[in-house]
Amino acid sequence: MKKISYIEIEEVNRKFEKFLEFVVPIFCCRCEAWIEDLENKQKETPYKKARAKSPHHNGIVNKYLNSKKPIKNNLDLFLNDYEHGFFHGLMTAFCAFLITNPSKKITEQGFDSDDFEKLFSSCILHDFVKCIEGNQSENHDKKLRDYFSDLNEETYGHNCLAEQYSDTALVMADRIELMRYSDYEDWTDERLTSAFNKLSEENQKDIKIFYLKIRPALENFYKKRNSIWIKHGLEGVKVKVGWESNAINAPKENINDNSTWPIKDSYYSPSSVEKQSENIKNGPYPIDQDRFPFSAHGHYPKGKPIVSRLSLGFCSNHNIGLIWAKLKGYIDAETFHEKGGVIVDSEARDHLYAKSKIKITDWDFVYNNLAFKDELNYNHENCCYPFDEKSTKDSQITEILEDIINIPKTRVVKQNSIYLLWLANKLVFDRIVLLNLD
């Protein structure tokens, strides 16, 4: 595949966000309203006018997620089976969303997406029996009817009658999801090729980018959602020796698959070095500690305060409009330790420092609030490091981001995609649990 630009990966992230923002009001219209407020989506639409008459809808999704048989003791298996469980179902639903391009229907109740609610539920649950019985479960699709009997008919034949239903969004999306395996090209056959070729040219490009870069990051964050994460954000694109001194021109590092994060000359040392710990002189870099999803929201709309209460408790996303929140490397504490990383108490800062030589492919990269398209050279107010004389433009950060994106096996995703993944997971899975307490 040719070089991937920031614009291209941003466009795919926006489509993933659009999908999750479509899912949210299926379960909670008020969450949708908060998302619109945070993203400054003030434009009046017929849908918003209709919804204003009533902030609720008929909750038809509940009947699709209500099992006829007890499943309470099996839900952890479903949640934690990353190959066939909830996460796989959600990614399948995203592919189905791209294929069908659904729209919200306007009713007196303000919201109706019945067709997609049924398809979404079918995608989420299609491999439920496989999670319970194991990967070798026979007729797992047929057996699903004994649990969830109101799903799309192809759900009960997506495996044993797959050819009969090969043109349905569920089966096409399920086959496309085989691209989640890094070696899929070595063993998949014409069934995946056929499903992929039915997509529009635009969707084909988006799917490739999603499975190369975005989905691997989402999966790693989801798998390790209970871990403590270490974050180091880019602090500059030129070497700097203390806040008072002038920036020193330095050749741009050739970032490749042998590079480590943080990259050379990209972070700062405190100015009064003689008063600080000797540890800082020796090369440790500043870090923040955090947990998934790293923010109560990932978007920084213009006109909103840079210091947002939405980052309260999420230390890796404070000052979300500043440079160190715009391009961040994350690594879970277990992997950091296994790769030889060391935590450093600088005795000079409230936050910690770290020392490591961990390859760039072992980090997950998150970007946030970078200017888009015609705004690419927009120099965000106070984007620079505090007290710095020269600001770092978004275009400079984007150049480094694109270098990282185009290294094989790097994982890159937008901050807001992570937050919305967490929100959708919370709303959907918690609803399944509550509907199936017996």
What does this structure look like?
There is one protein chain. The chain is of the alpha+beta class. The chain is built from 17 helices and eight strands. The strands form two sheets. The chain has a five-stranded mixed beta sheet. It has a three-stranded antiparallel beta sheet with strand order 2-6-5, with no helix packed on it. Helix 1 (6-27) runs antiparallel to helix 2 (29-38), helix 6 (86-100) packs across helix 10 and helix 10 (169-176) packs across helix 12 (190-197). The model is unreliable at 239-251, 376-382 and 384-389 (pLDDT under 50).
Following the backbone from N to C, one meets helices and strands in this order, namely HHHHHHHHHHHHHEHEEEHEEEHEH
Q: Based on helices, strands and strand pairing, what is the structural class? A: alpha+beta
Shape: globular
Share of residues in strands: 5-15%
Q: What spatial order of strands do you see in the largest sheet?
A: 3-1-4-7-8
- Number of distinct beta strands: 8
Kindly give the count of domains: 2
DSSP helix count? 17
Distance between the termini: 50 Å
Radius of gyration from the alpha-carbon trace, in angstroms: 23 Å
Largest sheet features: 5 strands, mixed
User: Runs with pLDDT <50, length 5+?
Assistant: 239-251, 376-382, 384-389
